[in-house]
Write a structure and sequence with these properties.
InterPro entries: ATP-NAD_kinase_N, CERK_C, CERK_PH, Diacylglycerol_kinase_cat_dom, Lipid_Phosphate_FormReg, NAD/diacylglycerol_kinase_sf
Keywords: Membrane, Transmembrane, Transmembrane helix
CATH architecture of the largest domain: Sandwich
Number of helices: 15
Pfam family, one: CERK_C
Number of strands: 17
Strand content: 25-35%
CATH class of the largest domain: Mainly Beta
Radius of gyration: 25 Å
Number of domains: 2
Protein name: Ceramide kinase-like
GO molecular function, one term: ceramide kinase activity
Helix content: 25-40%
Largest sheet: 10 strands, antiparallel
């Protein structure tokens, strides 16, 4: 039994034994379908106390050799997100697994927005822990990620406001227990929004590096992004849905329909630095999976500094009218869109996929949106362009005009004045001149932004999505 267990020991995470009854129960991971994991156990009986004790000691020695597994975790629970079931999910489904795996936890139930972020930035004694865990949705993860990244930069003496600086990778891994209305990040890194599966990935010590985008306006840092930066359609959907928070998750559907029917487009300039080398393209159909070869080839020390990029590489500049400008740092897959916004985007290759949807008919735009839900190529339209980039900038047209010192057109001052009135008072019914940026579910305060991808800045307790044939193998469920 011990020899067999040594082959698949990474799936064993705990042991319980009873001395007087001479039995030991070994807990292990059982792979199920749809990328889900389950906690299973097998019980061994023995007539001799000494032999039973030897089993237990040997198993514990083997577990102790697996140093990638966490022993102490700091857990934040959002009791308000999603269907307000975060505390219940943790107590009933996650805490028992942590206990069986002998993982100690300090639990904090958040009391306000950004509670976890502020605590991580200033108060938490991070030296005590092997990782931090959030029980909530994408917003809760974003809070924790911002706190941890900002804390790491401050302790390293790195200025977050400067795009010239190279950010320091975070030393602690982040675990996500999905309990929100949207769990895009968990779905795109594990393949499932199942809390038990995520808890098991944490206790077995999985590690998945992830890229993080820093978003700036001139010399000011705004936010970090790990999934979607969306201007135009997705920015308008978020802006409208924020006014309907009382409706719960249904607000996204209603705001989506309303935004689609409005069919607004926005003018501006996008400039970007294309990715090079072995990073592939957004249309190469090479999906990021567990052990992805493209991500394995990329590491933080291979990044070229911004100064070298500016001097040695050529920026591409595109001006036009856009229904949507999206930057996907991961596939952004979710149950409603199994492929995501960019099916071939990679988690840790130091790039983001820039998707430009130019002005087109409402019918054509609907065809593009529908392809997010089926197997057809959503980029196979004449009005859609997609690029794999290392950084990009966006400037709305009205800011380009306002920055021009020499206004040669007659009546230019009056036109600018009327334009300002239209932007601030939309009762006239004219097309608004600008949208908002949707940054991982938060609205950015500025429209003109610069975005830089930082390769493998954080690590999750995950392993990427495993290939589906693994789950269809009848022998894959035999952990020991």
């Amino acid at each position: 039994m011990i020899l067999i267990m040594q082959v698949t020991f990474y799936l064993v995470f705990g042991i319980m034994w009873h001395f007087h009854l001479c039995f030991s129960a070994v807990f292990y991971v059982e792979r199920m379908r749809q990328h889900c994991w389950r906690c299973s156990n097998v019980t061994f009986h023995c007539s001799e106390h000494s032999m039973c004790l030897l089993w237990v000691q040997t198993i514990r020695e083997q577990l102790a050799l697996l140093t990638n597994r966490p022993k102490n975790l700091l857990v934040y629970i959002n009791p308000y997100g999603g269907k307000q079931r975060g505390k219940q999910i943790y107590d009933h489904k996650v805490a028992p697994i942590f206990s069986r795996a002998s993982v100690s936890t300090d639990v904090i139930v958040t009391e306000r927005a950004n509670h976890a972020r502020d605590h991580l930035k200033t108060e938490a004694d991070l030296k005590k822990y092997d990782g931090v865990v959030c029980v909530g949705g994408d917003g809760m993860f974003s809070e924790m990620m911002h706190g941890l990244v900002s804390r790491t930069q401050r302790e390293a003496g790195v200025d977050e406001n400067s795009m010239e600086e190279t950010l320091m990778p975070c030393g602690l891994r982040i675990g996500i227990i999905p309990a929100g209305s949207t769990d895009c990040i968990c779905y795109a890194t594990v393949g499932s929004n199942d809390p038990v599966t995520s808890a098991l990935h944490i206790v077995v010590g999985d590690s998945q590096p992830m890229d993080v985008c820093s978003v700036h306006n001139e010399d000011s840092f705004l936010r970090y992004s790990v999934s979607l930066l969306g201007y135009g359609f997705y920015g308008d959907v978020l802006t409208d849905s924020e006014r309907k928070r009382w409706m719960g998750p249904a607000r996204y559907d209603i705001s989506g329909v309303k935004t689609f029917l409005s069919h607004r487009y926005y003018e501006g300039t996008v400039s970007f630095l294309p990715a090079e080398g072995d990073s592939g393209t957004p249309r190469d159909k090479m999906q990021c999976r567990s052990g992805c070869s493209i991500c394995l080839q990329t590491s933080s020390d291979q990044l070229v500094s911004k100064n070298e990029d500016s001097c040695g590489d050529t920026w591409t500049v595109i001006r036009g009218k856009f229904l949507a400008i999206n930057a996907a740092s991961m596939s952004c897959a979710c149950p409603r869109s199994p492929k995501g916004l960019s099916p071939s985007a990679h988690l840790a290759d130091g790039t983001t996929d820039l998707i430009l949807v130019r002005k087109c008919s409402r019918l054509n735009f609907l065809c593009h949106l529908l392809r997010h839900t089926n197997k057809e190529d959503q980029f196979d339209h004449s009005f859609v362009e997609v690029y794999r980039v290392k950084q990009f900038r966006f400037t709305p047209r009205y800011q380009e005009c306002d920055s021009e010192v020499d206004l040669r057109e007659s009546g230019a001052t009056g036109k600018r004045f009327l334009s300002q009135i239209c932007r601030e008072h939309r009762a006239c019914g004219c097309m608004p001149s600008q949208s908002n940026w949707n940054c991982d579910g938060e609205i950015l305060p500025h429209t003109a932004i610069q975005v830089l991808v930082h390769s493998q800045l954080i690590k999750l307790f995950a392993r990427g999505i495993e290939e589906q044939p693994v789950f269809e193998d009848p022998y894959a469920q035999c952990a020991i």
